[in-house]
Amino acid sequence: MQTLIAANWKMFKTGPEAAATVTSLAEKLGGACPAGRDVLVFAPFTALEAVARAMNALSGAMVGAQNLYPAEEGAFTGEISARMISACGATWVLTGHSERRHILGESNAFVGQKTGFALRHGLRVTLCVGETLDEREAGKLKDVLTEQLREGLADLPEGFSPDALAVAYEPVWAIGTGKTALSEDIADAHGLVRGLLKDFLGSQAQNIRVLYGGSVKPDNAAAILALDNVDGVLVGGASLQAENFIRIVTA
Ligand code: PEP
Q: Which atom from ligand 1 is nearest to the alpha carbon of 97?
């Protein structure tokens, strides 16, 4: 299984700014992703096309959208369809990011609808799960992950390829805060996620990449990537500058 190093550029960068970052990544990486590593950038909708074009200079790199609406088309003002995302050259989409769950009020059930819809429409999905600090302190980590995964995976298409799905464990309290979870907490949570994937999906679970996200930085990436059941990372703030992101891609 290739290690997946994914960037989430959130609501940062215009198209030209995003393309310039990819061009800089491509130059510094010598035009190809390092052996054994997949590089994926979740760019804002308005930058998808520019990023996809710039990625022609970085062989093996992929682009994804940060959200989609689970309908073919229609009267959904402000929303973006799977077909629109694919037409921009993007092949992945994020679902269930904690900022969408907690700022925009997305439920587990809606996240599950989006995940299934995206997979049925030819997109690959990174489904994000993770507990808040209150939930962790109340001893609810397993319950939260169980419900997020049960509902998040409830609508998967028959015979989907495990390579088309990744799960990102992102403790909400570690996102954008500079507080990385302790290695033992990451290893424990990833073990729980792998076990739940086995419960829900059987033998396919071992081929689904489980990523860690939450204040991953150039100086902690290698240690996190070395942990059991960590098959990659999802990086927000530290992916915005090519120099930092390269140090994580090559960690
Ligand atoms: C994220 O946005 O998914 C994320 C993990 O952000 P950060 O790396 O900034 O904590």
A: 3
Q: What is the pLDDT of residues 79-96, one digit of tens each?
A: 999 999 999 999 999 999
Name the CA dihedral angle for 27, 166, 240, 133, rounded to a multiple of 10 degrees: -160
Distance (Å) of CA 101 to CA 4, 29, 168, 195: 23, 34, 14, 23
Distance 229 CA to ligand 1 centre (A): 19
97 labelled catalytic: yes
Q: pLDDT digits over 190-208, tens only?
A: 999 999 999 999 999 999 9
**Which atom number of ligand 1 is nearest to the Cα of residue 216?**
8
* CA 191 to chain centroid: 18
Token representation of residue 188: 């424990």
Calpha distance 82→125 (Å, rounded): 11
Residues constituting the chain: 251
Structure confidence by residue, pLDDT tens digits, 125-169: 999 999 999 999 999 999 999 999 999 999 999 999 999 999 999
Compute the chain's Rg from CA coordinates. 17
